[in-house]
Design brief:
Blueprint lengths: L3 E6 L14 E2 L2 E2 H12 L2 E6 L11 E3 L7 H12 L4 E6 L7 H9 L6 E6 L2 E2 L3 E5 L3 H9 L14 E4 L1 H7 L12 H11 L4
Helix pairs in contact: 2-4
């Protein structure tokens, strides 16, 4: 697709105690799982990180956070700044079960919008969403106002919220949005999926 895949890997992972990008699921580091899928999907891959050396073996553009300390919103801004395409699909580095059909479907919903974001019963999924370059200035303005949540700038742009009914057709179990923040969540995820370390 004529789009960029952005992977945010700037978090400190303090609750996990290790870099979440390199946690192995089924013997494969999560970052490698995401990267392999993105190579199939996108013409460009950008990894936003404050630890560039850890990702040098991956075929991607590795960039440092332009707005350190600004959380995921700052990471998204950085990814969009470096992106070569109008649209970018942005995820976190700790999401091991992304689904190609869902990512491709969301891309078909971008026409006329600046954001295409899934909305499930748990709420919006801003780290599994497409963003246009038009989001850069609203994101920066939102950060300047002291807000750090990605969806805080949504009122300033054109947003297409894709409902759960559409999502479940392509990802019945909702695995696309699973992420890992603590050792307990990692253990629970492995039990749920039946995938060993």
């Amino acid at each position: 697709m004529k789009a960029t895949g952005i992977i945010l890997s700037g978090g400190k992972s303090t609750r996990m105690g290790q870099n979440k990008a390199f946690i192995e699921i089924g013997g494969i580091p999560i970052i490698h799982r995401i990267h392999a899928l993105f190579r199939e999907l996108f013409e460009e891959i950008i990894i936003v990180t404050n630890e560039k050396d850890l990702f040098r073996d991956l075929d991607a553009r590795i960039v440092g956070d332009l707005l350190p300390g600004a959380g995921a919103l700052g990471g998204l801004y950085t990814g969009l700044f470096y992106s070569s395409f109008r649209y970018s699909f942005c995820v976190a580095c700790d999401m091991p079960f992304l689904k190609r059909p869902l990512i491709e479907y969301l891309h078909t919903r971008t026409l006329g919008y600046d954001v295409v974001v899934p909305k499930t019963r748990d709420g919006l999924e801003p780290l599994h969403a497409y963003y246009s370059r038009n989001c850069m200035e609203p994101a920066r303005e939102t950060l300047a106002n002291g807000s750090y949540r990605i969806f805080d700038f949504y009122p300033l742009v054109r947003v297409n919220m894709v409902g759960e009914g559409e999502i479940r057709v392509l990802d019945p179990e909702g695995e696309s949005f699973l992420n890992i923040n603590t050792p307990e969540e990692l253990l629970s995820l492995r039990r749920r999926t039946g995938i060993p370390q």
